[in-house]
């Protein structure tokens, strides 16, 4: 494919992959979806996006594949599955990639690109994707949008490319998403961006899973709100120890932003109620270990991690 007409593959077409894939396909990009459990529903009924901003959105027909053997190689690959499935999906990414392809890792947590990099061929470029987006999978082929529409792209690693620099690749990706209606920007420091997102993810995902509750309760109840704020400030301590001094009023700003949403159920909530493995290593273990190496302990986050490990261990045996 040429730079002006890239072929895009969606690997992991849940809420995140479905949302971005919907926008790209609707905008006329050549998008290909590798599907498993949702293959029949999306092939038959199309991909559906619902929410206040998308009240008039119609289902769209997309190119679907049940097997990687049938899917064409792609110039861009969007990895929307959980980090817990990377070992299984990395060989699929390698087979789905055109020469010099760019893989965008749309996952939560710290160091996810470092881990994924070791599983990918050195010929592929790896880009981190920070999704500032509240969506969830409402039904097979149906994505419910709650709030936000932002994607931050940062280059991680890849081969030296005489045709394009890392910044040029980021600009190409940003232009592609902006053309589809996503508010995308490039970022210079991927690690800083991952710590920044952890300020929201660590409390809201973990507490939502433990209480089996959405953001309305977590921000509305004074006890749960205090717990969320405590965890947020502890993430700030870890980030500061690692060289990222975020503003002290950032937690309250995030609380206020979240209270402006309709009730939202974070991804780890669904992991618990559907008995799926949680992304505990990337979202809790890695920040705890990284902060500890910088001389900073995170006791409240460590306690949260231990509680979630108990829940996770019992859930996956059901």
How would the blueprint of this fold be written?
Layout: E1 7-11, H1 15-26, E2 30-34, H2 39-45, E3 48-50, E4 63-65, E5 74-79, H3 86-96, E6 97-105, H4 112-117, E7 125-139, E8 142-157, H5 166-179, E9 183-186, H6 190-211, H7 215-220, H8 222-241, H9 250-259, H10 267-273, H11 280-293, H12 299-315
Parallel strand pairs: 1-2, 1-5, 2-4, 3-8, 5-6, 6-7, 8-9
Antiparallel strand pairs: 7-8
Helix pairs in contact: 6-8, 6-10, 6-12, 8-11, 11-12
Detailed description of the structure:
With 318 residues, this protein is an alpha/beta fold. The chain has 2 domains: 7-188, Rossmann fold (3-Layer(aba) Sandwich); 192-315, N-(1-d-carboxylethyl)-l-norvaline Dehydrogenase, domain 2. The chain is built from 12 helices and 9 strands. It has helices spanning 15-26, 39-45, 86-96, 112-117, 166-179, 190-211, 215-220, 222-241, 250-259, 267-273, 280-293, 299-315, and strands at residues 7-11, 30-34, 48-50, 63-65, 74-79, 97-105, 125-139, 142-157, 183-186. Strands 1, 2, 3, 4, 5, 6, 7, 8 and 9 form a 9-stranded mixed β-sheet that branches. The longest helix has 22 residues, at 190-211. Belongs to the ketopantoate reductase family. Catalyzes the NADPH-dependent reduction of ketopantoate into pantoic acid. Keywords: NADP, Oxidoreductase, Pantothenate biosynthesis. It comes from Paraburkholderia edwinii.
């Amino acid at each position: 494919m040429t730079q002006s007409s890239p072929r895009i593959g969606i690997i992991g077409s849940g809420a995140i992959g479905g949302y971005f894939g919907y926008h790209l396909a609707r905008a006329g990009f050549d998008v290909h979806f590798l599907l498993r459990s949702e293959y029949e529903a999306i092939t038959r009924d199309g991909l559906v996006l619902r929410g206040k901003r998308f009240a008039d959105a119609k289902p769209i027909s997309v190119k679907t594949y049940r097997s990687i053997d049938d899917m064409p190689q792609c110039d861009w690959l969007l990895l929307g599955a959980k980090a817990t499935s990377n070992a299984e999906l990395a060989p699929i990414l390698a087979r789905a990639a055109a020469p010099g392809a760019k893989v965008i890792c749309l996952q939560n947590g710290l160091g996810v690109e470092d881990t994924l990099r070791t599983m990918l061929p050195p010929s592929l470029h790896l880009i981190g994707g920070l999704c500032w987006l509240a969506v969830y999978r409402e039904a097979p082929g149906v994505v419910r949008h709650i709030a936000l529409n932002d994607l931050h792209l940062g280059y991680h690693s890849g081969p030296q490319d005489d045709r394009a620099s890392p910044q040029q690749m980021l600009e190409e990706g940003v232009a592609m998403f902006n053309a589809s209606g996503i508010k995308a920007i490039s970022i210079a420091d991927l690690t800083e961006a991952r710590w920044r997102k952890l300020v929201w993810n660590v409390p809201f995902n973990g507490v939502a899973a433990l209480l089996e509750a959405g953001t309305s309760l977590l921000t509305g109840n004074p006890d749960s709100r205090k717990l969320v704020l405590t965890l947020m400030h502890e993430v700030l301590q870890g980030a500061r120890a690692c060289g990222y001094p975020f503003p002290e009023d950032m937690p309250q700003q995030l609380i206020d932003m979240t209270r402006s949403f309709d009730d939202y159920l974070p991804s780890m909530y669904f992991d618990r109620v559907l008995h799926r493995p949680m992304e505990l290593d990337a979202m809790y273990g890695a920040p705890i270990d990284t902060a500890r190496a910088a001389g900073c302990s995170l006791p409240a986050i460590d306690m949260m991690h231990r509680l979630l490990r108990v829940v996770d261990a019992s859930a996956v045996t059901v």
